[in-house]
Structure formats: C-alpha cells, structure tokens
Amino acid sequence: NRYLFNGKHLEQITSIGPRTVGSPENENTTVSYLLDQIEQIRSESETGPHSITVDIQRPSGCFSIGCYDRITNIAVKLQPKTSAQHFMLANCHFDSVANSPGASDDAVGCSVMLEVLHSLANLSTPLKHGVIFLFNGAEETILQASHGFITQHPWARQVRAFVNLEAAGVGGKELVFQTGPENPWLVQAYARAAVHPFATVVGQEIFQSGLIPSDTDFRIFRDFGNIPGIDLAFIENGFIYHTKYDTPGRIHTDSIQRAGDNILSVLKHLVMSDELADSSQYRHGNMVFFDLLGLTMLVYPAHVGTVINYIVAVAAVIYLSGKCLLTSSGRYMRDLVCVVCVLVLSWIFSLVTLLFVAWLVTLMGRSMFWYSHIHAAVFLYGSAAVCILLLIHTLVKNRCYRRAGRVDLAELFFDGSLLLWCFVLFFFTHRGWCSAYVPMMMVLFPLISKLLLTKLFRARGASLQYSVLYLMGLVVPYVYIMFLIRVIFEVFTPILGRSKDEIPPDIIMASLVTVATVILSSYIIHFIYLSRGTKRVLAVLGSVFMLMFVLVSCGLFFPYSADPSSPRPKRVFVQHITRSFHTLNGSLQSSDSGLCINDLDYTGMQHITPHIPQINDSISTHCQDWLSCSRQFLTSFSHCFRKSWYLPAPEVSPKAPLEVQLLSRQETQWGTVKMSFEVKGPSHMSLYLHPHAGASLSSWSFNDWNFVFYTHGLDAPVWRFWIEILVSTPQRSSCFLVFSRSSPQTCLLMRAWSLWPSLLIIYLVQTDARRRSSPS
Ligand SMILES: *[C@@H]1O[C@H](CO)[C@@H](O)[C@H](O)[C@H]1NC(C)=O
Ligand SMILES: *[C@@H]1O[C@H](CO)[C@@H](O)[C@H](O)[C@H]1NC(C)=O
C-alpha cells in the first residue's frame, strides 16, 4: 500500500510564477494556496488519531550579513492527539529566485511535504512523536526564514532532528549529501528506511570543504539551532538551476515518487524511533555512508572505518613485503620503486600535456566547448590522456624492459598500482577523511582477486581465462568508482558555468578528465605489458584526438544551447539601475540610468558582443566604481564581480521607490557622531558604508562589516538604523549621507531594488547551425 505522490501541488505552486520574497505572489498567493491545502488535510483527518496545528510566523531579525523584517513561515505541527514532546522537522521553501518558476528549487520540496503530511495525518495508528512541517518563505535571501524559525519560533525547542529537501539541479534523484553533525542514528535511520537510497559521504566532504558555491538551510539549523539533520538535494541538470527552465515539466513523476517514498519512510521511521526522544545518548561519532548503486546502503562509524582502512592497507603492505622477501637480493624492491616512478611520471606527464591542450583551447577562444557536449571533452581530453599513458608505457616496455618476462612485468605494474593506492588510502585515513572508503575499495578488491587468482593459477601465468577472472574481480570497485565519477562530473560541469573563478574552466575540466583516466587505468594499465603491441590502439587514439582538436578549434561545439529538451543557457547577471549622485549638502548633482551587466562564466561577453555590439570591452568595468565591495564579501556576496559592463538605458521606475531620511544627528560624549536613519523602500535593499578618508565607522546597528543586506515581507514597518562615525579630521565631519562612491566626496552608498521585474537575465542561445547565437 504505497502512497502515490502525484505532484499536483507542484503544478499549482509553479503556476503562480516566480515567487520572490516580499512579492504578493510569494506572500499572498502561495501562502493562501498552502494554507488551503493544509486546511483540507486537517479537516479530512480530523477523526483520525492525529491533530494538526497551523501557525503563521512573520519573524524579523539579523544575522551574518543580512537583516529581515516580517518574512513568512508556515509551520504545521502534526502530533498524536495525546500530544508529543519530541518532533522531527521537515523543511522546504516555497520562495524562488526572480527569474525562475522554481519547480525543483524548491516547489517540489513543498509539494512532497504536503503529500507526506497528508499521508502521515491519514495513518490510522498514532505516531510516537510528532512532525513539524516548515514551509519557509525566504530561503533565496540567504536562508533568512529558517533562521527566523529556529531562533524565534516557540516550537523550535521541541525539534530534535530535521530533514531538508533542496535543489542544486533540476529533477533526477535526490542525493543525501550531508548528515549530522555527529548523531549517527540519523544516517542509520535513512539507511534502514529509505526505499531508494542515494547517498555518499564523499558529497558531504566535498560540500563542507566549500568547493560548491552554495548553501542550504542545513547550516542554519545546525549552527543556530544546534540540531542535526539530513540534507537532500536534486543534483541532476544543474545547468538550469535558478533559471526560467526550472519548470515542473522537467521533473518526472518518478523523481517525485522517489523523493516522496524516501522522505515519507524516513520520517515515519524516525518518529517511531526511541533515538528521537533522547538523541544525546546516540550522539557521538561521524559515519561513513554510501549506497551501492541504489541497491543498498552501507553505514559504519568512522572509527570502524579507520580500523578497516588500516587493516586493508597493512594487508596490502604485507602482501608486497612477502613478495619482497621471497625474491633475493632486494631486486624486487628496486623494480617496484622503478615501476612506481614510471607510473607517477606517466600521470604527471599526461596531466601536463592535458593542461597544455586546455590552455591552447582557451587561447583559441573555445573555452567551455564541452558545456553542451560533455562527450566532446571526454573524446578530446580523454583520448589525449589515454594516449599519453599508453605511449609512455609502450616506450618504457620497449626501451627499458626489453628482456624482462611479460608476465613478471605485468605483475610488477599491478603491485606498483596497489602500492600507490595504499599510499592514497593511508593519506586519506590519516587525514580522517571518511571518503577513504573509496581508496579502500580500490585496494581491497584487486588484492583479494589477485590472491585468489594466484592460488588458482599457480603456474599458468597470463591466460585469457586468468585475465577475464581478474577483470571480474575489479567489477565492484570499478563500477562504483565510475558511478562516482559520473556524479562528480554531473555536479561540477554546471558549476563551471556559474563560477567567478579566474582559473580557466578548461583547465579544471582537463584536470578532472586526467584524474578520472588515471584512476580508471590504474589496475588495467599493466595489460600493455602483456600485449604484443599498442601501435594500432595508439594510432586510433591519436587520430581521435587530432580530429577532435580540429573540430574544437573550428568552433564546431558551441558551448550553449537552446535545445528545449536540454537547454544550456549562458548565465549573465543584468541589473537595470538608476543612480543618483548627491553633493555633500544632500542636493542632487547628477543621475543616470543603465544596465549593469556581469558575466557569470569564463567566456564573458565573447559570444554576446557579436550580436549586441553595444556590450563590448570599451564599456567594461564601468559599474565597479559604484558597485564596489570589500574583499571579505567575495565569498558570501554574489553581486561582487571581477568585471562589469555598463550600458545606458531608460530610467527605472520601481513600484516602491526609495526614501531615505536622516532622523537625528548628535555628537556623543566619546567623540563620535551618531546618526539615525529611516528608510522606506522595496523588498530587497542593501547598504554599503564607505567612510571618507579621515573618518571610520566605529559601530552601527548591524554586523561587523560595513555592508548589510535587508529583506522585508509585506506590511513591514520602515527600516530604522543608526551609524556611529569616528572623525579624526574635523573639517570633514559634515559628510555622511551621500549616495554614491564615485565622486571623491562620497561616504555612503545606498542601493535598493525590487528584484521583480526590474531584474532581467539574458540568455545566449543557439538557434541553428549557421546563425550561431542570438540573444532572446
Ligand atoms: C485518507 O485520505 C483519503 C482521501 O484522500 C480518504 O478517502 C481516506 O478515508 C483516508 N484514510 C484514512 C485511514 O483516514
Ligand atoms: C562598443 O560599445 C560602445 C558603446 O556601447 C559603442 O559606441 C562602440 O561602437 C562599440 N564598439 C564596437 C567595436 O562595436
């Protein structure tokens, strides 16, 4: 009796359109839709054993670089009628970014939560504990609604653990990419209950290392609520994450059913568990967790993992030293060292070659050619990497080992690879990385199959049968690692389309392909030494590489695509702005209006300029003098760019114009000037403070930085704040409320915008083969 998730709410919520914080779509339409649905579920299950309580929270507060005022949370408490003490929290957000219907991010999450609520409320046997469903209405504004809930809502104290459903892509399977901190029982519950497990601790370690430029409510619940949880995200197709293509049509019913099955069964399991009531008892230790191709989950404590890893590594070392002792006069040792050197040199050489190719591709202006054609990258870089590895080993075989027995050589290279994986395993384990289970597999399985085969085929050496059995022994780690590599490419390729890094993305792609090739080749490279010749293979690979190189340099592979079945838009950030420059006494000096354009990937305006000649390098870096920001925000503040373009345009007429008022100005006993302001304006505002030379900000109402990001919902009161300036050069003390930084006299920059509809995003698309790209 499986619950059928149908995603009807997803259609309804996304049909409202983009739902930015503070817009009526978000604060009224979506909220009343959700309330209606919850009320229906409540009345339907009234006679059942559960009660449902709904609370609308409108929190205000400040944390980190942001402040919020009267944003919206809908909290729904489901508990047995006898009432419960301990609660699971299930979190989703219904707001979206300005230009997206936000289907995967995160209407689908809320749609699944509604159905999970329905299903649980409808159970005929009462649950042991309760569930709080949080439909949060401000996540895209740096996670403010979850902060409002966890720090201010009276129910927050009863929450013992949470499940969060998010998106870093559109559709597909939802990956458990972080759990904890500590609290092994949570991931154990997922392992036991999830119907279709998809999880890996590699995801957790990559995400928490900060390589992925995004964040989820997980951090807020963990850091401000001290609550452990499970973070799930859709990761497929990140190319269209936060774009207008994030539509319900791209999420298969299967995806919804999968996510629903998993969340429902995990929640059910957790609210029936004893651990929830007293989680402190089960608190300690990190876990190693991963699924085996969705069939089953393996979960074990990290300290057990450490023991296993060391045992496996030591076993391999014993195997190798056994061989060493069996052969006389240390020859084996010497040979092994040589082989390890050859292997490492072949890796370095192929990496260097690939980086050179990537650099050439970048120089030719064909950067990111693989963005829409990942296979092109595999063929170009992959063939080059394999080619170099083959070439080096063929040379070594023909030059250095001409007299050695082929079988012995192959054995030696196998041992060399094993030793290198052992190093990796020792290193990972020593660093305390849970991901060490991957090298562990790469040592364990080859070692076992080698030992078994040596027993079986004592004298026969390299027969076909032997090779087949050997390869079969590699199936488990190889299939697993290929699957992992696929996921890593799936996640990182789209990120290269929205990263502001200075490193050319082709360098990163080439490195990833090299690493993947090296990993996959490690236990099969020794077949070269068994084979008679590699000339033909080398010729084929060489031709593939040359052909691909020519095709890439001719520009056959255009990075972006408008193919409706899998669009790959180019990301450009465009802000339509009106700037006012004021003099020191407050009167308007000048004003202008324009589009401030920022590229979000490495190709910049290269593909746009031919079609919109006005956007060229002669107008670049124009906004920087007004939209400048301190280095420290670069990680947290997405509006800081290395390069901008400024194009004149008609004036902006926002629905809620900005009104700033100086309320009071007084000199304090401790020699500073304190000024209070009142601001009325749109839902999203940010304030930068740049004290004039000779003055400094001694304190203000906000954070430790001279920047604050402010969001409000509907019916928010005016925004009040104060600043206190320490003036060391008295004659300039009169200057503190001016609106731009570009005149030499400036001190304060005020920027305000309502994201919708004055923000617009340009997509570069390919319409047909000849007319390469046209903006739409
Ligand atoms: C569950 O909900 C359905 C309506 O969707 C209702 O027909 C059914 O009777 C409910 N079951 C229970 C056990 O309350
Ligand atoms: C570059 O842009 C400027 C301003 O939009 C324009 O005047 C100029 O003609 C453009 N240059 C080219 C080469 O198109």
TrEMBL record:
Domain Peptidase M28: 73-266
Major localization class: endoplasmic reticulum
GO MF terms, alphabetically ordered: metal ion binding; metalloexopeptidase activity
Bilayer-spanning residue ranges: 308-326, 338-362, 368-392, 412-430, 436-457, 469-489, 509-530, 537-560
Ranges for domain Endoplasmic reticulum metallopeptidase 1/1-A TM: 332-552
Endoplasmic reticulum metallopeptidase 1-like C-terminal domain segment(s): 567-734
Subcellular location: Endoplasmic reticulum membrane
Keyword set includes Hydrolase: yes
GO biological process: proteolysis
UniProt membrane topology term: Multi-pass membrane protein
Any single Gene Ontology cellular-component annotation: endoplasmic reticulum membrane
Hydrolase in keyword set: yes
Keyword entries, A-Z: Endoplasmic reticulum, Glycoprotein, Hydrolase, Membrane, Metal-binding, Metalloprotease, Protease, Transmembrane, Transmembrane helix, Zinc
Gene3D superfamilies: Zn peptidases
Cofactor entry: Zn(2+)
Record Pfam families: ERMP1-TM (PF22249), ERMP1_C (PF22248), Peptidase_M28 (PF04389)
Family to which this protein belongs: Belongs to the peptidase M28 family.
Identification of the protein by name: Endoplasmic reticulum metallopeptidase 1
Taxonomic source organism: Cyprinus carpio (Common carp)
